[in-house]
């Protein structure tokens, strides 16, 4: 039985909803805004988080208010079909991926509310047992001369912390040596699938060769597989993982070869049916998984931690508690692995 089929027939009653804005300065140097979607029904409230990246989209949504025809009696499946068929943006979205992010926000809130109304937690409904959750901290290092400061500051407080790092041409030999000596890098994200952004890296085989020779044994995320780079990575294919291009089961099917592991970011998939279909596909094909976040500021962070604890608790999950993404990380954050903190009913991580 498909995972989504276990939840699609849940009854769902919605009386109304509310939109709640959140914002924070995050480590990448931008003001992050998200919108919490609070669906109410039968005296209960289900929460989800719209993680659209353009702040203007959140401002327009929150100014328009709760204008969508969500009230009524549904099943979770029929509610999702309705959400996927209507326009969720009062004005056109700034970019296409935001359509899926917003669908995720509404459908995750509906899943939370439907499970609460049924008196069940998600894992019980799916027949799964959550496990302690391993996480890594995703980090882009600074610029010279203080290039290693973000890494060093975190390791000074949390010596056992592991990282997903973004190599750049600014990594000189001394930087590479210190990253290697730390033993803390488990994933190197080459950002090779991005074009025309501030985080692009060059499709330079010498760059890949230099980084991977200095920091061996890591997972290699999102390389740009030109023929020359593919040749450099020929003996490392089992360590290549994919993230930015994984938004659906069709995207997994379209990969140039079956990967050992892929990054499943729930909000990138949008519809719950697509997300749970990806979990099923990877399990059927023996593809390992790890989770990723989108700078969630509220309930969405806990929800992706919940899913990771159920489907891939031992992966290098890029789902660290939000405090690890602050420009200056404070002491007292929970270390990895996180103990299981699933809600007694619903779809929340306490």
**CATH class of the largest domain, please?**
Alpha Beta
Taking pLDDT < 50 over at least 5 consecutive residues as the criterion, the unreliable ranges are: none
What fold name stands as the CATH topology of the largest domain?
A: TIM Barrel
Our measurement of the CA-to-CA distance between the termini, rounded to an integer number of angstroms, reads 29 Å
Helix and strand pattern: HEEEEHEHHHEHEHEHEHEHEHHEH
Q: Name the strands of the widest sheet in spatial order.
A: 6-7-8-9-10-11-12
Structural class label: alpha/beta
The helix content is 25-40%
Write structural notes for this entry.
The structure is a single chain. With 350 residues, the protein is of the alpha/beta class. The chain folds into 2 domains: 5-120, 2-Layer Sandwich (Enolase-like, domain 1), CATH 3.30.390; 126-325, Alpha-Beta Barrel (TIM Barrel), CATH 3.20.20. It is 35% helix and 17% strand. It has 13 helices and 12 strands. The protein has helices at 5-8, 55-64, 76-85, 97-118, 122-126, 149-157, 173-182, 205-214, 227-232, 249-253, 266-269, 272-285, 299-311; strands spanning 11-14, 16-25, 31-41, 44-50, 72-75, 137-139, 163-165, 185-189, 219-221, 240-242, 261-264, 288-291. Strands 6-7-8-9-10-11-12 form a 7-stranded parallel beta sheet. The chain has a 3-stranded antiparallel beta sheet with strand order 2-3-4. Strand 3 and strand 4 form a beta hairpin. Helix 3 runs antiparallel to helix 4. The longest helix has 22 residues, at 97-118. It is globular.
